[in-house]
């Protein structure tokens, strides 16, 4: 057991969160203000947009305008999802300093979600990686369904490790391990992490856990015990779970920060400023605030 | 690290949960049906009522009628809170096989909540304990504010240990450690538990954690690692937090059961039957279901 002294939070609310919000298209200026508020709160890594066809994801159709509108605060990394070469070109044109690609740990999920095998999806990223590297842009890799698949059930830890290793070998600087359906529990999270850590250095592994079954903080605590020091989370728990109607998706940043503060782990982020941001964006969206810490602490400094 | 092989769930929804529900008085038959459904789901320990003045807690005014109405299923312990001798007499008259007394770990909380010092509150329980023992009734001890007090802030683990020891010395067979305001985080929970375990055998310690800050399952995982094998929880997360309006109180039984199943720990309880019970009672009360597992799994067998 060796807790990290410091954890880097990767805030995914503006992309992974808003992308999964139901309802009308969110105005560009609202997205820009959310990102700026989070940066002002001390968040050093924000997934800001997705350069994907607006036919697939209408909510992200203004990616270039978002990247053009945000303040570029020094010390903050603003990243974007780029599922293909066209997306990467858009990200480069919008002066995006970091992009992300993704693959599933489950064959069934890969087929159903992006209509190709895991191997084919990795193959498609080869030119994206090459062009990103040529442009001096860092690439983060996401692995989905690491603790269960809605179609195939349990996923072997070795399979997660193999896909993680493949993404690192292709040139990703970090892999983010996504419990897409939130079905994981702490021992399973630990076992999966141990398998990945045989292939990828621990300081290059991020935990991206969903709270669909309420287990996210327990799972994070378990992998923090193993030394994970990068956590993906979403302010106010923005984003739902496409596989269970009305259920939670991303773990709330506020709740993660509260856990970390209690463990004496530094993040550089002002919790109350994130709480205020979460209350602000949920009012804007007319949505329930999914953070229990936000509900308990209430609002101030508005 | 030594997880227990088996955990006993003490279901507190019918008492600690319903007592803190806002709204009109819940009909006796609804309470009775809730208790019977939980017993049928395999819950072996149910806190069913509180023999307290209805002037203080109107929601519990029908304690005798509840105890008279429920099925007495073999192998199930039905218990009641008895704050004083009059309460104990009511519980004995209602043929209650187990009762519970309570003390705070915080002097400030004791003074504000029951208007006397911790020592005075323990003194008051001496005749209750004597009479319960004479009647062959087991007594459970609750300690509140073990991980923080709404008035005094942090509570020293040694103070929790001293109050726990006092309750055991008076004749309680078990102490339940309550994080009344849900402010605890895993390391603090562990440190508090370690202090108590110096005074009370581990198999006589129960964890009663609230989820107000979303930390309950992480805290439970941390104390399970230390060997705690009794957990208090409330179906559908019944009961709010009197110290933070609109916030969560008791951790949901469904979410605890899901955690335990994932850890391979047996409880003898059918998770889906508890999920169905939680959906039923929340419909009866016109209340949001506070269990994320219940939200994710939905309903069946209704």
Automatic annotation (TrEMBL), chains A, B:
Pathway: Metabolic intermediate metabolism; (S)-3-hydroxy-3-methylglutaryl-CoA degradation; acetoacetate from (S)-3-hydroxy-3-methylglutaryl-CoA: step 1/1. InterPro entries: Aldolase_TIM, HMGL, PYR_CT. Keywords: Lyase, Metal-binding. GO terms for biological process: ketone body biosynthetic process; L-leucine catabolic process. Signal peptide: none annotated. Transmembrane segments: none annotated. It is an enzyme of class 4 (lyase). Pfam families: HMGL-like. Residues 7-275 form the Pyruvate carboxyltransferase domain. One of its GO terms (molecular function) is hydroxymethylglutaryl-CoA lyase activity. Its EC number is 4.1.3.4. It comes from the Bacteria. Belongs to the HMG-CoA lyase family. NCBIfam families: PRK05692.1. This is hydroxymethylglutaryl-CoA lyase. It comes from Marinobacterium stanieri.
